[in-house]
Amino acid sequence: DAAATTDAPAMEAKTTAAAGGLAQRFQVTAEVTISKIFPAGFGWQTASIIAENNFGYAPDTMSFAMTTGLGDAIGVLGGHCLFYGAKKALVDKSINMESEFQTGVLLGSAAFCSGTAWQPLVDALQGANLSFMGVFAGTWVGCGMAFYAGLRAGRTILSGYMTHINEPTYENSKADASLSCVIGGATGFFVGTDAAYLPDQNFLINVVGIPDGTPDLVGCAIAGSSTSLGFLTSQSVFNVIYPTGKCWND
């Protein structure tokens, strides 16, 4: 997300895929995972603990959902700014932190939408007695769509106030769509943290499951790891199969 404008929602690459090829895509993928995807999961889980223990919100309330969405958004914005602030100080003096802040706001606004949608969506899918894979797939699609809607709305609103955010166009809609699809993957893997729902079907339970009694900080770290794993897995497939110049991280 270090570019003069946010024409693609995450433009860490200083060169195009034509110049950097597959390695460039994976470099951007790694930077996004560290700077935004792990902090998003960590922030969501932290906010869920605060919502329940400090505010007394039940997990099936809109107040809980919006609090976790805010935690998700803060994780994305904060992680993005911290990462690129450190990168500017240590590696690349040319990074424009005003541009990075605005990019973080755009991505954070989209993360608020998908983070807010996650718990109500999972509750609805589990309430329909779907299999674990049904909940996993439904969450992937639903939260991916919520993230995309947040990106498009963010572009529409924020481009009038922030000079480094481009208004919605057909071209950036394609980049936004490919990014939203892999963000959906991150939210789908996050379903694996629920160790209580159909544990015999949860193929992620031994990797990212958060059973009762898990210390809060450990649970937050596992949550961030689950979103990171989902993003890395789905984006790695995109990195390999997408034509050059067609994916969000080109």
Q: Could you please describe the fold and organization of this structure?
A:
With 250 residues, this protein is mainly alpha-helical. It is 70% helix and 0% strand. It has seven helices and no strands. The longest helix is centred in the first third of the chain and has 37 residues, at 17-53. It is globular, with a radius of gyration of 17 Å. The model is unreliable at 1-5 and 8-19 (pLDDT under 50).
Write the layout of secondary structure elements.
Layout: H1 17-53, H2 62-90, H3 97-127, H4 132-158, H5 170-190, H6 205-208, H7 216-241
Helix pairs in contact: 1-2, 1-7, 2-3, 3-4, 4-5, 5-7
The largest β sheet comes out as: none
Radius of gyration, whole Å: 17 Å
Could you give the count of β-strands?
0
Unreliably modeled segments: 1-5, 8-19
Distance between the termini: 11 Å
Quick rundown:
The protein is 70% helix and 0% strand.
Which characteristics define this entry?
mainly alpha; disordered N terminus; single chain; 7 helices; 250 residues
